[in-house]
Amino acid sequence: MRTDPVDAARFYLEGLASLHLRRRVAADQVAAVLEASPPIEYTAGQSVFRQGGRSDAALLVVHGELSVSVSSPEGDHMVGTVGPWDVVGETALYAPDEPRSASVRASRDSTCLVITRDMLAAGGSNGVVAAIEYHLLHTMSHRIRVTNHGIHDAWRELESAPLQGDR
Amino acid sequence: MSPSTWLGQARRLLAAHPHVDAAPEDIESLLSMCTVRRIPQGETLCREGDPGTRLFVLLAGTITVVKRDVTGTDRHVGDVRAPTLLGQMGIIDRARRTATCTAATDCVVAAMDQGTFQDLVRQTTPTAAALRRLLLSSLTRQMVHGNDRMRALFAARGGASTDPDAPRTGLLQARGVLEGWTDDVGRNPAKD
């Protein structure tokens, strides 16, 4: 049975606020966010956004799964999947002039919330918006640490073999 | 630095983060919750490996950043100039410092302690929103510029280099940018 996307998004936002703010938020605050950002459904196989495109929006995955791929001269590479509680496209919020660094496609039927900076700015006193911003902070911090650890590990491996420039 | 100059500092900080939706007065309020002190040239602000218990706002001066590479060698990553946030990764994740920061000139630094930060970052006040948005803007810059540096290094692989240590320096600078210690090394030079 398919879950109603608005119910799923409401449940998601209530959980997000409880997790990050350590308290329940009023129903009208959840409703205000859902009115500003109605959930969007993607069917499996549908493109969500393309590498190189520009946008000022990030996506919170409420339900389902999205696959992320990067195109390079050597070909297309799938770099991972994201599911409920994950965020994609978050750099667009504060670097709207930067092109998308990857393409995203729904690998299963999915429900997402579109987050824009205007939506965040309009909801400064809304606990749900505060929870979304807090969630973005920790998601980005985690992503930076994962990338950094990857560089560190790759460097250690490289030290066992000559680095470019070594003679 | 007197509180009367904080509004000016707030405006400078916002100018450095043009996409942050906050009023200068909200940033001023944020600074008023910090302990402001002068750091004389040569004094160390934080050391690699220390607990990340404070968020710093560099209000005046220049900080030089040194980071230990995977071989245990300390390398200069870059310099960071006011106004900017420093130490945001440690206070968000309660993680240890990943670089050592020393005052290259006499500096003025506002520091917010972990307790104040953790209480404020969950609030719905304009000051709390300003803090979250400044941090989000900083993290975005770290991700975008750090990825640029990595792409530039990858594109340069196999190229002739007169400095045999250049790849290591490049990797460490990319990590320094990614970790938010410095933006001094800038964007991919090809895009500048």
Structure, explained:
The complex is a heterodimer of chains A (167) and B (192). With 167 residues, chain A is of the alpha+beta class. Chain A has one domain (5-159): Jelly Rolls, CATH 2.60.120.10. Chain A is 42% helix and 25% strand. In chain A, the strands form 2 sheets. In chain A, strands 1-8-3-6 form a 4-stranded antiparallel beta sheet. The relative contact order of chain A is 0.20. The model of chain A has no long low-confidence stretch (mean pLDDT 90). Chain B has 192 residues and is an alpha+beta fold. Chain B has one domain (3-191): Jelly Rolls (Sandwich). Chain B has 6 helices and 8 strands; from the N terminus they run ααββββββαββααα. In chain B, the strands form 2 sheets. Chain B has a 4-stranded antiparallel beta sheet. In chain B, helix 1 (6-16) crosses helix 2 (24-32) and helix 2 crosses helix 5. The termini of chain B are far apart. The model of chain B is unreliable at 185-192 (pLDDT under 50). The chains are: A alpha+beta (167), B alpha+beta (192). Chains A and B meet through helix 3, helix 4 and helix 5 of A and helix 3, helix 5 and helix 6 of B.
SSE topology sketch:
The complex is a heterodimer of chains A (167) and B (192).
Chain A: H1 5-21, H2 27-36, E1 40-42, E2 47-49, E3 57-63, E4 66-72, E5 75-82, E6 87-88, H3 91-94, E7 103-106, E8 110-116, H4 117-122, H5 127-159
Antiparallel strand pairs in A: 1-8, 2-7, 3-6, 3-8, 4-5, 4-7
Chain B: H1 6-16, H2 24-32, E1 35-39, E2 44-46, E3 54-60, E4 62-68, E5 74-81, E6 84-86, H3 88-93, E7 100-103, E8 107-113, H4 114-120, H5 126-156, H6 166-178
Antiparallel strand pairs in B: 1-8, 2-7, 3-6, 3-8, 4-5, 4-7
Helix pairs in contact in B: 1-2, 2-5, 5-6
